[in-house]
Amino acid sequence: MADSSEAGTEDFDEFSLLLDERRLKSLLDTITIGGFGKNKKLKEACSKDKELKKILKDQHAAYAIIGQTSAKIQKRKTDIARKIGLTFDSIDKLACEHHPGIHFEITGTIDGAFIYTPRKDNKRELNTYQCIQCASEKHVPRTIAYDCPQCGIVLGDFEKKHYRSPEESWRALAGREGEHYHCTLCGIQIGEHYWKMS
After folding, report:
1. Does residue 18 carry a pLDDT above 70?
2. Which domain holds residue 177?
């Protein structure tokens, strides 16, 4: 019976096969250098070990499956949010709890959103919206909404988080301070605004 370290590595699923020799070498380098220092003898032995290659390919396949599962979870959460009236696929479907049947209007765009909008979409801006009647009556709280590239149009306001880059970036004249904007449903960053830069 052949030793396990000499076993073939051909029988992997489709995700494993995505791990080409270049990436496999990179992973081997990470393991040997990161785990044991720059030991050339160990690195050479690891690079020839078929069992280690199989383990790495299995790990890569697991990461691919986790990524796919995460995407499915997010899609299902988005579907549920739409079902209970938290997200919409068009401005015409937005509904104000204070003024049923009243339309919404675009009030502006989210700063820096073009960076976070997928390139496959022709739309590179993310809008903010408000109920027309809420605005005319100066209703508080007014019903507002915003675009999220992942969720669609989301009722409510996006989350604003203070951001300040590390001190090293300020010394390198690349410092930034301001706010990062995040979707309250899926958590992805959808924009940014900086009021201080070095």
Report:
1. no
2. 87-197
